[in-house]
Write a structure and sequence with these properties.
heterodimer; A: about 450 residues; D-Maltodextrin-Binding Protein, domain 2; 13 strands; B: mainly alpha; two-stranded antiparallel ribbon; 2 strands
């Protein structure tokens, strides 16, 4: 049969053109993978000197914060020689990081990028971040909150400037807790008792919901309990996801889910959550300081909500924990790291810049040691006239597990923890079992990335 | 010797050069690179590879890692999807095509365009639209069902695959119908006339004339659908936002995407992409071989 003969007749061999088409179609998936070279050595670049007195530069800054250009414009007005232009990227894990990795691998990329604390090491591994210690980062460390500064230091270097953090507190509807005669919980055990009381009070209501496919809250609670999943020792990573602290947190949530103490039908701050919170079917949320803006979106919630310090694991662990938090990191693609460093230091320590970031971008907790933000020092109408930022989050910001280290393969472990919750909710697999399996797979993930790791015994 | 003959031999290559250049640049080179990468692994020194990173030939290591439990499960899932969804869609497309080509059809042009229209909606948009009909609290279907006392959850772990199948069927049935319609219109009028003279009824015309003669179109539509199914990506990726049951390795392509762009593990991603291509080749040729043998 001639290739390309019109389709006609019954039994026959497929034509060459058909075979080619099938081949093309089947190969399309290969195109996906063939874009990027693997493995470049990390930055060992020489220090780039600052620009001369008559030169000027324009820096690019990739971030998913809305309104960031307004903040940069304050700087731009005062520094005509160093102009900063922002470009919006999707939120990190929903596409922003993929875009960054791809741009950097292709030899492009911005001068500055927003990178979350937990993703910082993964960018170090790719050799994408400038060690800012070369440009004076150690000299400005005393302007920052020490707990958060510990999260950007690796190997005696500084790989990002902390932009915001997320100390955790307990947001609650005062009327719903009063209805069951409860005060805000001091410990997670009290939290479980209140959750039970609310279930008994009204069959449609829950104290909180647990996310079904997000590992970060669970990890935050383990951090609070004093867990230390990753410990660098020499050139090797020691992994320990089955220590007492972690297993007790896993057991606690296994029980809470088994006893129907938490709502598992929707995720926190989803449309369904807002509907439930407005009706009082959700009474509380253990969430980071930056959730205040979100919770203010609950319909008719003004004056009903309050904030209390995060419940603790009794005599174990820390008063609070971090949930989220970003850095402004200078990329190896930058030709002007000194100017970029000067700008991000200004952005994260100058009171006017911090206030502007709160107003225009709604950033999380300020990382500056001296300024939490002018608007955050006032009592809040929504939160029942409470000065919750001073009362709750200011102390929470320093009650942190500073031994916690994020590893360069965190996205993988995060996915494993998310899968652990999926398996718990859809198939009833205990979290303690899934976490033990995740520990083995995490050690393997390090080795797959070409790094040395073993289980801490 | 004949310079003219040499010029004649050169001409097709000169004329094809623009195509060949682009084809090599955008198709052959990336595929060759992906296959090469599937055999490369990176070794790193130090905690973050700060003391150096070296690429090395890894043999089949990446392939061994590519065949993780999740990836194998995703292939099984997608084969199940293909076994159910592709026949349903092809039968539906054939039925619509036969109806539109039948003498009794009213406004065949209008319906042909209507059935084809979903194909014009980009897959991402279609998935977002359908998501609104799946998410409890937003979906009128779920509301009506629960008002009638029926508890439906389109996004549960055991139903979400079929919710995706529904979107795919909705999108591609009209497209496959058009392939079949084209083949049906190519059947010469005199064949129908002969059948009528021999006293064949409408049903007999379908089973003895139309179906055997559109067989090549059906085979081709099925093979293309199989290939499309094995590369399912956009629908589950978008539905992740509303369905927690969809994990990062839900379909083979989603797994390769996650490895490449979330984990920066291009070696394993390339190995998975190669495996997907091999499975697709194998299945397509197997299907063509089976249908060919049956016919002869």
């Amino acid at each position: 049969m001639r290739a390309g003969e019109p389709l006609r007749g019954g039994g026959r061999a497929f034509s060459r053109r058909e075979a080619l088409l099938i081949g093309l179609g089947a190969s399309a998936s290969l195109l996906l993978a063939g874009c990027t070279p693997a493995g470049r050595p990390p930055a060992t670049s020489a220090v780039i000197p600052p620009i001369g007195p008559r030169e000027s530069v324009t820096l690019t800054y990739w971030s998913w914060l809305e309104g960031l250009q307004d903040v940069c414009d304050i700087w731009n007005a005062r520094n005509p020689r160093v102009q900063v232009r922002t470009a919006w990227i999707p939120g990190g894990t929903v596409g922003g990081y993929s875009k960054l990795h791809a741009a950097l691998a292709a030899g492009g990329g911005p001068d500055i990028a927003q990178i979350e604390m937990l993703n910082l090491p993964e960018f170090i591994l790719q050799g994408s971040l400038v060690d800012l210690a070369q440009y004076g980062a150690h000299d400005v460390s005393d302007r920052y909150d020490q707990a958060i500064w510990s999260q950007v230091q690796f190997l005696d270097g500084v790989y990002g400037i902390p932009q915001d953090s997320g100390p955790v507190g307990f947001y609650y509807r005062a009327d719903r807790l009063e209805a069951v005669g409860a005060e805000p919980p001091r410990t997670w055990d009290e939290w479980a008792q209140i959750a039970k009381a609310i279930r008994e009070d009204d069959a449609d209501s829950y104290l909180e919901c647990v996310p079904s496919a997000d590992g970060t809250p669970f990890i935050s609670y383990c951090q609070q309990a004093g867990a230390r999943w990753f410990e660098p020792q020499g050139d090797e990573w020691l992994v320990s996801m089955t220590d007492d602290a972690t297993l007790s947190v896993a057991r606690f949530f296994d029980r809470a889910i088994d006893d129907d103490l938490v709502d598992t039908r929707f995720d926190v701050f989803s449309p369904a959550w807002f509907a439930a919170a407005a009706d009082g079917r959700i009474a509380a949320a253990t969430a980071a300081s930056w959730a205040d803006r979100t919770i203010e979106g609950v319909r008719d919630g003004a004056g009903k909500w309050r904030v209390a310090p995060m419940q603790t694991w009794g005599d174990r662990g820390f008063g609070s924990s971090y949930l989220g938090g970003s850095t402004a990191a200078v990329m190896t693609s930058s030709a002007h790291p000194q100017e970029a460093f000067d700008f991000v230091t200004w952005m994260t320590t100058d009171p006017e810049a911090i206030d502007a970031q709160i107003e225009h971008c709604g950033i999380g907790w300020s990382t500056s040691r001296d300024h939490i933000g002018t608007s955050r020092e006032k009592p809040s109408e929504f939160f029942s006239g409470q000065e919750y930022n001073r009362e709750v989050f200011l102390p929470a910001a320093s009650e942190q597990n500073t031994d916690w280290v994020w590893p360069p393969i965190m996205v993988r472990t995060l996915a494993m923890v998310a899968d652990a919750f999926r398996a718990k909710l859809s198939a009833g697999v205990p979290l303690v079992d899934s976490i033990a399996a995740a520990e083995r797979r995490t050690v393997q993930a390090f080795r797959d990335a070409g790094l040395d790791a073993r289980r801490r015994s | 010797m004949g310079g003219r003959y040499a010029a004649q031999r050169r001409a097709p290559w000169v004329l094809m050069a623009p195509f060949l250049a682009l084809f090599a640049l955008t198709f052959v080179a990336p595929i060759a690179m992906a296959i090469w990468q599937s055999f490369v692994a990176v070794d790193r020194e130090g905690l973050f590879g700060e003391a150096g990173a070296t690429s090395r030939f890894a043999g089949l290591d990446n392939y061994a890692r590519a065949l993780s439990a999740g990836f194998v499960a995703s292939i099984g899932r997608i084969l199940l999807f293909a076994v159910v969804q592709v026949p349903v869609m092809i039968v539906l497309a054939t039925a619509l095509a036969l109806l539109l080509q039948s003498a009794a059809a009213r406004w065949p042009q209008f319906f042909r365009v209507s059935y084809f229209l979903p194909y014009g909606v980009p897959g991402v948009i279609a998935t977002i639209l359908w998501s609104f009909l799946y998410v409890p609290g937003l979906s009128p279907i779920v509301d009506v069902a629960s008002a009638l006392g029926i508890d439906v959850d389109f996004l549960a772990p055991d139903t979400v695959l079929w919710s995706i199948a529904n979107i795919v069927t909705w999108t591609y049935t009209g497209y496959n119908m058009l392939i079949i319609v084209a083949q049906l219109s190519a059947i010469p009028k005199d064949v129908y006339e002969a059948a009528r003279i021999d006293g064949a009824g409408a049903w007999r015309v379908v089973t003895s004339i139309q179906l055997p003669l559109i067989r090549p179109a059906l085979v081709l539509a099925t093979v293309f659908s199989l290939i499309g199914t094995l590369q399912l990506f956009a629908e589950p990726q978008i539905m992740q936002d509303v369905a927690n049951a969809i994990d990062s390795e839900y379909t083979p392509n989603l797994a390769a995407y996650t490895n490449a762009f979330t984990y920066n593990d291009y070696g394993v991603a390339s190995a998975q992409a190669t495996l997907i291509a091999l499975v697709t080749f194998a299945l397509s040729f197997l299907f063509l071989r089976l249908t060919r043998e049956k016919a002869s």
